[in-house]
Amino acid sequence: MASAKPIRFGVGDVGLRHRASTWRCWSQGKSKKDVYVACREIGYAIKGSLHESGRWHFAYTDNFYRKAFDGQQEPGCSRFIERWEAPPELAPGFRLALRILVPWSSVTSDITDEDATKVYWVEPPSPGRAVEFGIAITSSAPDEDSWPGARSMGTRLVDKLGLPDGSMVWVVHWETDMPVFEERTAQANFFKGRSRADLKLGQELRMLAFDSKEDGSRVLYDLVGTYNPRSAEGT
User: Fold this and answer.
1) E strand residue ranges, 68-180
2) Residues 162, 136 contacting (CB under 8 angstroms)
3) What are φ and ψ of residue 64, in 5° steps?
4) What is the pLDDT of residue 114?
5) With a cut of 70, which residues of the chain have pLDDT below it?
6) Is residue 197 part of a domain?
7) What is the reported pTM?
8) Residue 44 contacts residue 38 (beta carbons within 8 Å)
9) For the chain, N or C: smaller number of CB within 10 Å?
10) Would 195 be classed as within a structural domain?
11) Distance in angstroms (rounded) separating the CA atoms of residues 133 and 171
12) Is residue 78 included in any domain, yes or no?
C-alpha cells in the first residue's frame, strides 16, 4: 500500500551516527497530483516542483526569497532557478523525474535522535562510489512486490506515494560509480545579511549542484566542501 505521508530519506550510518543531507518528497491536495522535493539541510529554502501541468521547476520558496534577496536581485531575476518541461516517458507509463546523487564523502553530519526515527536511511556507499536516488512517476502500480528498476537495475525501494488519479511516485536507490566533475570557479554571492566574514577557515559547507541528463531528468548532487580563503581569492 502506498504511503500518504511525506517520504523522508537520506544516506547515513546509524551506528556511527553520521549522515549526508536528508530529503523530503511529498504531494498535497486531494485533487491535484503535484509532487514536491526539498532538502532539509538548506532549510527547505529551495523546492523542486513537479506540477501536474508538466511545467516543472526548481525555485526558492516565496518566504526565503523575500528575506534573502530583498532589494539585492539583479534586474530581470526571479526566484526560479531552473524551469523545464516534464521529460518524456522512458517506457509507456514510466517517467524518471529526478535523481539525487550522494557521494561517499558527503556522509559527514551528525545524526540526531529525531533523524533516527523519521528518516529512511540508506547505508553509505563504498569509498569512491555514490548512492543515487531516483524519483519516478508511473501511471499505475507495477506488479505487487516490485518497483521501478527492481529487475533491470537492482534498485531498492525507499517508499511510494499514491496520487489522486491512481498514478504512483516512487523513491528508489542504487549504488553507482562517481561521475567525473570538471573543476570550475565562480563569483561568490551572499544572501542578504551574509558576507565572506561569516565563513570560518576549514568550515564544512554543504552544497547542492544541479545538472541534467540526456533522458530529460534533472540531477541534484549532495556535496560537501571546506572554506579555504586562499582558494577563494579572486572568486
Assistant:
1) 80-85, 94-103, 109-110, 120-122, 129-138, 156-162, 168-177
2) no
3) -65, -40
4) 75
5) 1-4, 29, 71-76, 142-144, 186, 230-235
6) yes
7) 0.89
8) yes
9) N
10) yes
11) 7
12) yes
Q: What angle do CA 230, 129, 223 make, to 5 degrees?
A: 40
Residue 115, SS3 per DSSP: helix
CB-CB contact of 111 with 19 (8 Å)? yes
Query: Which amino acid does the sequence have at 26?
Result: W
Provide the pLDDT for residue 234: 40
Q: Residue 125's domain spans which residues?
A: 7-232
Model pLDDT, residue 235:
39
Listed in sequence order, the residues at least 6 apart from 193 whose beta carbon sits closer than 8 Å to its beta carbon are none
CB 41 within 8 A of CB 31: no
- Distance, in Å, from the CA atom of 17 to the CA atom of 112, rounded to the nearest integer, reads 8
Take residue 133 and report the three cell numbers written for it.
536516488
Residue 2 in domain: no
Q: Which residues contact 72 (CB under 8 A, 6 or more apart)?
A: 192
Sign of CA dihedral 119, 136, 218, 152: positive
d(CA 132, CA 11): 10
Domains of the chain: total: 1
Q: How far, in Å, are 5, 87, 207, 218, 220 from residue 22 at the CA level?
A: 16, 25, 13, 18, 13
Q: What are the angstrom distances between the C-alpha of 165 and each of 41, 52, 105, 213?
A: 32, 11, 40, 28
Cβ pair 132, 99 in contact under 8 A = yes
Please tell me whether residue 216 adopts helix, strand or coil conformation.
coil
Q: Would you call 193 exposed, middle or buried from its count of C-beta atoms within 10 A (0-12, 13-18, 19+)?
A: exposed
